User: Which sequence fits this backbone?
């Protein structure tokens, strides 16, 4: 068994992500399929959107089955829809799937970039409908390096001019409150899911971006950042699998006498049981694990 597998992403693009752009090619050299590429699924076992190793094997095959965490890059050239994700119980009962909690690490933000991070205090969704929700949204400024935790029930929307790293439960369940009256792939507005969105939303949630921090631990995943500056940095050991993503710079990922070249934008799957890894060079990496 190899100690690490460099992953080739699956992409969501074109009509699937009309809000996407070309920043993933500009910033990380991704071989994007078009200039409306919104998502690069770096480590995914979702059917039809699986990432692969260099030998063509899917991440599911490498891991011996589906994994509970999904990692992606998102390029928001335009604002995404206002949405919310259900918890495990609601998603299982209504969709037969996992719920979704996630976290964002801001990689790039244009000057003045903002995103929706919850609702204004006192919002009562039973008295709100349609476009009225725009007046209830809590917008926050973000900058590169910020970490934002998105628990299930948190109303959110990524704003224009933001590129981010997202770690999440491996689920595709999303309920839209509002899509800014933008047309979908067929020229008509995309469907909304107001009833289920209201049932899942937790208007009382009010969090702030984590600025200047390098670690976030939740019930479902741990996200950590490490830096190697002209030398080496040890990766935190974990009993289970890990995803390692180079955020900037270049160098090598080393295990014993083995070494793999790494550069910004690369993501590696580290199987369970692999320990004593080091990152060498001048670079920064994000590590996601259970």
Assistant:
């Amino acid at each position: 068994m190899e100690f690490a597998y460099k992953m080739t992403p699956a992409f969501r693009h074109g009509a699937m992500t009309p809000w996407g752009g070309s920043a993933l090619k500009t910033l990380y050299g991704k071989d994007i399929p078009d200039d409306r590429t919104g998502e690069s699924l770096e480590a995914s076992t979702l059917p039809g959107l699986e990432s692969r190793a260099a030998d063509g094997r899917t991440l599911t095959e490498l891991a011996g089955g589906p994994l509970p965490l999904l990692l992606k890059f998102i390029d928001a050239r335009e604002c995404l829809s206002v949405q919310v994700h259900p918890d495990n119980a609601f998603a299982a009962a209504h969709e037969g799937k996992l719920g979704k909690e996630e976290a964002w690490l801001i990689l790039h933000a244009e000057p003045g970039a903002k995103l929706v991070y919850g609702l204004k205090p006192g919002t009562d969704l039973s008295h709100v409908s349609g476009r009225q929700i725009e007046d209830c949204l809590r917008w926050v400024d973000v900058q590169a390096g910020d970490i934002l935790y998105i628990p299930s029930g948190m109303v959110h929307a990524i704003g224009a001019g933001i590129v981010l790293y997202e770690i999440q439960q491996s689920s595709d369940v999303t309920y839209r409150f509002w899509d800014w009256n933008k047309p979908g792939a067929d020229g008509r507005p995309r469907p909304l899911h107001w009833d289920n969105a209201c049932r899942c939303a937790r208007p009382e949630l009010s969090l702030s971006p984590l600025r200047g921090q390098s670690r976030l631990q939740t019930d479902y995943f741990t996200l950590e950042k490490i830096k190697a500056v002209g030398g080496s940095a040890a990766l935190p050991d974990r009993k289970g699998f890990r995803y390692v993503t180079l955020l900037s710079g270049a160098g090598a990922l080393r295990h014993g006498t083995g070494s793999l070249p790494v550069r910004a934008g690369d993501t590696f799957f580290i199987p369970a049981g692999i320990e004593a890894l080091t990152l060498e060079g001048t670079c920064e990496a994000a590590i996601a694990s259970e």
In short: The first helix runs from residue 23 to 28. The mean pLDDT is 96.
